[in-house]
Amino acid sequence: MAINPLSLDFLTQKPGMAARVLQSLEAQESAIYLANDIPIRVVAPVIEKIESWPAARILECMPLDKTCAVLSVLKYPVVAAIMRLVDQQQRQLIVEHLPSQLVNALKRSLSYPEDTVGAWMDDLTPHFSRELTVGDCLAVLKKAQQSFELIVVINDKHAIDGVISPSALLISAPQRKLKEITDSGCVALAANNSLPVAKKAEGWRRYNTLPVRDSNDIFAGTINRTALMSAMLMSQPARKTTPEDTLLGHLSSAMVATATGLLAITTSGMGTARTEENSDDRKR
């Protein structure tokens, strides 16, 4: 295995460098290595340094008890970021074995009312550290095997630093850091924003997808213009159906209109006939 040079001392003393090596491997391979009698106090700092997307994949492959033990000692923003990217079925299984206080916090950060941005955002969108190089970012995206409309860059507190378009990422030199090519002018939507408020955001003038932040300013996901418009249509209250809206109602209205027209014609005809009769009587 290429991972053999990573001794316990190396993991302890250089968690950042160890993280870079581990996230370059297949998730299953990294998970086997970290689950192999390495203390949680050593594993946790390394997982914390790994980018959230590969960290989620690694933890999915580790034994459930060790995964939960690691998540229980990580900083909350890191836990929330990783759990957001974990497969939903696996996420539910993990939640059942986490401390109740952590579970309650996660539930608050992962669920939103139906009429807010948070309920309609894509919470599986990966994000990347501002210190990551373009080459390493592309390597992670290649493993994800997904297409993304926007690359979200975060700082060390998991707050949104800015965004990068895929085209800008592809034309940048591999050794450049993401912070050097990040557009920090893109303002994130708040997850608890109402849909009408989100529709008016200035960011739509430049981007078809915008990042979303939670109430603690931590990156929560993304939402694109199509999803927002669909959400607004689905959230509109249904108009109450009146008798006039039904086929029977339309037919009834048509019959009434026809009858009224005939009555008017008949009445007009009768009036004309009476006038002519009166005129004939006067002539006699």
Summarize the structure.
With 284 residues, the protein is mainly alpha-helical.
Describe the structure.
InterPro entries: CBS_dom_sf, Mg_transptr_MgtE_intracell_dom, MgtE_transporter. This is Magnesium transporter MgtE intracellular domain-containing protein. The protein is mostly helical. The protein folds into two domains: 1-111, Flagellar motor switch protein FliG, alpha-alpha superhelical domain (Annexin V, domain 1), CATH 1.10.220.30; 112-237, Roll (CBS-domain). The protein contains 15 helices and six strands. It has helices spanning 8-13, 15-24, 27-34, 40-49, 52-61, 64-73, 76-85, 88-95, 100-110, 134-144, 166-170, 178-181, 195-199, 225-235, 247-283, and strands at 127-129, 151-154, 160-164, 189-190, 209-213, 219-224. The strands form two sheets. A three-stranded mixed β-sheet has the order 1-2-3. Helix 10 links the parallel strand 1 (127-129) and strand 2. Helix 2 (15-24) packs across helix 4 (40-49) and helix 3 (27-34) crosses helix 5 (52-61). The protein is globular, with a radius of gyration of 32 Å. The model is unreliable at 244-252 and 256-279 (pLDDT under 50).
Largest sheet: 3 strands, mixed
Structural class: mainly alpha
Q: What is the total number of structural domains? A: 2
The name of the CATH topology of the largest domain is: CBS-domain
Oligomer: single chain
Shape: globular
Give the end-to-end Cα distance, rounded to a whole number of Å.
126 Å
Strand proportion, as a percent range, falls in: 5-15%
Domain Magnesium transporter MgtE intracellular: 13-117
InterPro entries: CBS_dom_sf, Mg_transptr_MgtE_intracell_dom, MgtE_transporter
Protein name: Magnesium transporter MgtE intracellular domain-containing protein
